[in-house]
Structures are given as C-alpha cells and as structure tokens.
C-alpha cells in the first residue's frame, strides 16, 4: 500500500491547510496577543507589555478574580460529579433491554443536541423570580413560603446554573457508559456469581474495573469541555448577580464583547489553556498509576 | 430472590426511569406550553399551567415583526453548507488517514488533529476576527461558514477515519483489481458501505454549527445576516424581554437539532462512542 501514500496525502492536505490557517495560525496569534496591549478602541498602540494583561485581569477591581477562579472550580466539579453519577445511573438502568427502550433513550438523551445558550434562556424562564415554574412547584409542595430569586440571589445563582448544566450533560455520560457497559462480557458476571459475589461486589469488582478506561477518558474530556462552556451561564445570568456565577470563560467573553480588550481576553484564555494542560497531565498520571494498582 | 423483592426492585427501577424522563422532558414541555399562551396567561402567578385556548400568536409575531424567517433561513443555509463542506473534507482525509501506509506519518497527522481538540475556541476567535476584518471581510456569511467548517473539521476527520478503519482494506484492493482508481474505489465501493458513518458525521456537524453563538455574534452584524442564536441574544440584550415571543424563539431554536437527533440518534450514538472526543 505504501505506493499510494503520496496520493493519499493529497486527500489530507486540504484539511491540514484549513487547520493551519484557521486554528494553528490564530492560536499562535492569540497566544502572542496575550502579551500585547490590544484594545479595539485604541489599535494604534499594540506594543508588547509583558505580563500586564495577566496582572490587569487578575487585579480587576470590579470582578474579584479569586471568586471567578473559585466559581470556575465549582462550576466544573459540581457539574461533572452530578453529570457523571446520574449519567452512570441512567446507563445502568438502560443496560438490560425492555420494551420501548429505544424511544425512552431518545426522550432522555435528546438534551445532548440542544443549544447551550437556548437552554440557558429556557431555564431562566423556569427559574424566573416572579413567574417561574420552579417557585410555583416549591410553593405548592410547601417547601418555601414566598418566591425565591434563583437567579437574582447570589446564594442560589450558582446552584441554579449547575442544575441546568447537569440536566444538559447527563446524556453524554449516559450514552458513553451505556456503550461501555454493553461491551462487558456476560461470562464475567456469571463467573463472579459462581464465586459467590453479590450485586454490590459484582458492580465494584467487575463492572467498574471493566469500564474504568471509559470513565477516565470521558471525565477528562468532559472537564475540558465544561471549562470552555459558558453558553448556559451566558443565557441565564451572564456571570451575575454580583459576580456569583462568573467563570473564567464568561469573564473572557465580557472582555471581548463589553470592554473590547482582546489583550486581556487572550490572557484569560491563555490561563484556561494552561490550567487544562496542567490538569490533564496530572489527571492522566494519577489515573494511570491507579490502574497499575488494580 | 423472593417474588416480593423482585417486585420492589422493578418498581424502584420504574420510578427511577420515570423520574429521569420527567426531568428530561419537563422543561421542554414547559417552554412549548408557554409559547402557546397569550401574553396575559404567560404573566400570571400562581401559574396557569395550560393555555385556555392554545394560540400561535407568539409565533406569528416572531416570524413577522421579529423577522425570524430571515434568521431561520440564514441559520439553515449556513449550517447545511458548512456541515456538508465538513463532511466532504472529512471523508477525503479520513479515508487518506485510514489507508496511509507509513505509521509514523499517520501518527504525526493524527496528533495534529487531536491537539486542536484541546484548543479553547475563544483563543482563536478574536485573532480570526481581527485578521478577517483587516481584510475587510468580517460581516460575511461565507467567512463564517468557512470558520464553522474548520471548527468541526478535526473531530469529523477523526470520526471518519475510525469508520474507514472498520472497512477491510481488501475491499479497496478488490476494487482496484477490477480496474478502479483509488478515487473511484472510494466513491463507488467504500462510501456506499459506510453511509451510517456519513450520517453520524453530518449530524455532529449540524448540531454543533446550528448551536454556535459566539463566533456569529462577533462576525455577523448586519440585520440580514443574523443567525437564530444571535437573534435570540439580541432579544435579551434589548431592555425588557417579552416571554411570549422569546419562548417561541427558543422553541424554534431547539427544534431543528432535536429533529436531527430524533432521526440520527442511532448514528450519533455510534459516532460518539467511535470518536469519543466531543461532548
């Protein structure tokens, strides 16, 4: 087959050209912009200013960076935890065939295909402080006496946006883990049962080890993806109230759309990328060590 | 297990499945109900759950003075063009990557593709904007379509490659013995047996591109070029949202990708587990 390689490379070249021009080139340009003064209002001066953009973004007077960072971590790990646990539970429920399973999984997995921004808007209506369905249900159940400002009260805003992200993200884990579960050979369960293992033991000694590689890769990918996913927050609170749901990605959007400060925006995305990079190295080395212990 | 225990377990399972179902479709049903109410019914508390008489007045307003017809057409043309473009590129280079013989070359090319998946879309957004606007080509739907192709491209190629990998190379060779060129064997012999793979790639591209907001907000300014997400965004940035119209707008924004999911679920599941990169 080697004699075709030259021809096959021609099939790949257009894609490489597109990726170099529209991903790699702007990536390098973006990384450089992080170290430049670059404001759309004042493009005469685009000189290099070292780490000033980073300092300005971190020392921002109106938005506490420490809080943004903490918000980002809560947003990522709370969303990830509940998406994973509920998605896994759903996959376990769907493992054995039952009548109407195809239709059912379509009805619980469809949120995967929705626009994050439109979902944010949809749920901001449900969480509306005056006419929202959430308040109505909670009041009818007698859990609260008067309507809560889910999105206007800093105490509830983060919980509210995380609920929506969980709603949106369950299908990803559901689909991936369901596929992994269906590839666990039945003989393994039979052998474990003969050895006297109960349901719980079978789950932790057969199921979990078998799907562990899928768990590692999906949680890693999902974490990166949630970090870069401001759409829901953008549609619900846009980072407010009082910075309560502001994450790195929404803060970066603010720098682009409201302050036109591309230098600081690039500095923030530089930080996002650095965090993701460090995190994935840590995560991979930690999980591969754990797998060796098995 | 005792009959009673078995009954309790299947009852528990049924309740859990019911809870997931209500959680998943409840919000969607709610926004659809809202969009069918008139303005007074939308703004009542305690809530009036069902409209007395379902009305499509919100949709009429949406498509007449809010000009949603134009935005819907823009979104549809943009999404179909870019998804189809990505599909063509993905098939060609996915085939190339799958069949290329030299291992080291193949791995280096794959690494180049996988790395783009780690790049946050935001970091490339503003440089693209400044580059294209300095060329005087910012408010252009063609440019946005090309950017959209490049955004979904790497994942589409990875997916296409893994679909081609499952087709035995003997099929290519047999076609070539029968006198086909490499390109002819791809078009006439291989593509016909991976139609479901093509559907998966197309569904993925469609969903991602239809839902894209931030690049479109940055690039598309003139009222005739807006896409549905951008139009929704401009709704909420204007003071005072009217939830009767907005709810109809949300339903229109969600519907196309839901249809794609309904028809393509089988392929999407295959694509997700095959490529396992995008969430």
Strand content of chain A: under 5%
Q: Compute the number of helices of chain B.
A: 13
- Helical segment tally of chain A? 12
Instruction: Give the N-terminus to C-terminus distance of chain B in angstroms.
Output: 39 Å
CATH architectural category of chain B: Orthogonal Bundle
CATH topology call of chain B: MetI-like fold
Shape of chain B: globular
Characteristics of this structure?
heterodimer; A: 294 residues; mainly alpha; MetI-like fold; 0% strand; globular; B: 279 residues; 13 helices
Overview of this structure, please?
The complex is a heterodimer of chains A (294) and B (279). Chain A has 294 residues and is mainly α. Chain A has one domain (34-293): MetI-like fold (Orthogonal Bundle). Helices cover 71% and strands 0% of the residues of chain A. Chain A has twelve helices and no strands. Chain A has helices at 5-33, 52-58, 65-94, 101-109, 116-126, 133-140, 154-182, 186-194, 199-227, 231-236, 248-257, 262-293. In chain A, helix 2 crosses helix 12. With 279 residues, chain B is mainly alpha-helical. Chain B has one domain (67-275): MetI-like fold (Orthogonal Bundle). Helix content of chain B is 77%, strand content 0%. Chain B has 13 helices and no strands. Chain B has helices spanning 3-35, 39-42, 57-64, 68-99, 103-116, 121-134, 141-165, 169-177, 182-193, 195-210, 214-219, 228-237, 243-275. The radius of gyration of chain B is 24 Å and the shape is globular. The mean pLDDT of chain B is 90. At the A-B interface, helix 1, helix 3, helix 4, helix 5 and helix 6 of A face helix 1, helix 4, helix 5, helix 6 and helix 7 of B.
């Amino acid at each position: 087959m080697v004699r075709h390689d030259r021809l096959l490379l021609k099939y790949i070249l257009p894609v490489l050209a597109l990726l170099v021009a529209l991903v790699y080139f702007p990536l390098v340009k973006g990384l450089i912009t992080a170290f430049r003064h670059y404001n759309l209002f004042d493009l005469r001066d685009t000189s290099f200013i070292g780490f000033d953009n980073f300092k300005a973004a971190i020392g921002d007077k109106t938005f506490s960076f420490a809080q943004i960072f903490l918000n980002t971590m809560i947003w990522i790990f709370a969303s990830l935890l509940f998406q994973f646990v509920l998605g896994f539970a759903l996959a376990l429920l769907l493992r054995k065939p039952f009548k109407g399973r195809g239709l059912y999984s379509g009805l619980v997995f469809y949120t995967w295909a929705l626009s994050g921004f439109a979902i944010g808007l949809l749920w901001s209506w449900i969480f509306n402080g005056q006419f929202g369905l959430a308040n109505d249900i909670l009041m009818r159940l007698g859990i609260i006496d008067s309507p809560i400002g889910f999105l206007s009260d800093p105490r509830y805003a983060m919980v509210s946006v995380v609920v929506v992200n969980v709603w949106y993200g369950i299908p990803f884990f559901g689909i991936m883990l369901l596929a992994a579960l269906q590839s666990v050979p039945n003989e393994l369960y039979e052998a474990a049962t003969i050895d006297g293992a109960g349901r719980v033991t079978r789950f932790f000694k057969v199921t979990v080890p078998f799907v562990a590689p899928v768990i590692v890769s999906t949680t890693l990918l999902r974490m990166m993806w949630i970090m870069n996913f401001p759409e829901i927050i953008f549609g619900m609170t846009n980072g407010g109230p009082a910075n309560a749901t502001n994450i790195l990605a929404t803060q970066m959007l603010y720098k682009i759309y409201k302050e036109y400060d591309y230098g600081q925006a690039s500095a923030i995305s530089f930080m996002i990328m650095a965090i993701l990079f460090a995190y994935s190295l840590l995560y991979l080395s930690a999980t591969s060590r754990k797998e060796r212990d098995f | 297990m005792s009959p009673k225990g078995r009954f309790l377990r299947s009852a528990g399972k049924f309740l859990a499945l019911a809870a997931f179902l209500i959680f998943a479709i409840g919000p969607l049903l709610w926004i659809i109900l809202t969009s069918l109410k008139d303005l007074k019914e939308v703004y009542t508390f305690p809530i009036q759950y069902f409209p007395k008489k379902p009305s499509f007045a919100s949709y009429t307003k949406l498509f007449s003075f809010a000009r949603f017809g134009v935005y819907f057409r823009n979104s549809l043309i943009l999404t179909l063009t870019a998804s189809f473009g990505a599909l063509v590129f993905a098939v060609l280079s996915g085939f190339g990557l799958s069949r290329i013989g030299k291992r080291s070359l193949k791995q280096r090319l794959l690494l180049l593709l996988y790395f783009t998946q780690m790049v946050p879309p935001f970091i490339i957004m503003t440089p693209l904007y400044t580059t294209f606007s300095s060329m005087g080509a910012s408010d252009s739907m063609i440019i946005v379509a090309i950017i959209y192709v490049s955004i979904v491209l790497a994942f589409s190629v990875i997916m296409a490659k893994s679909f081609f990998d499952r087709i035995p190379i003997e099929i290519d060779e047999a076609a070539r013995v029968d006198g086909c060129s490499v390109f002819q064997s791809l078009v006439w012999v291989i593509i016909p047996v991976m139609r479901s793979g093509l559907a998966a790639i197309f569904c993925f591209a469609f969903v991602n591109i239809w839902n894209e907001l931030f690049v479109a907000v940055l690039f598309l300014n003139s009222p005739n070029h807006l896409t549905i997400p951008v139009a929704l965004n401009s709704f909420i940035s204007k003071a005072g949202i009217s939830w009767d119209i907005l709810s109809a707008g949300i339903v229109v924004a969600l519907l196309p990708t839901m249809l794609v999911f309904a028809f393509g679920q089988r392929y999407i599941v295959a694509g997700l587990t095959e490529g396992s990169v995008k969430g």
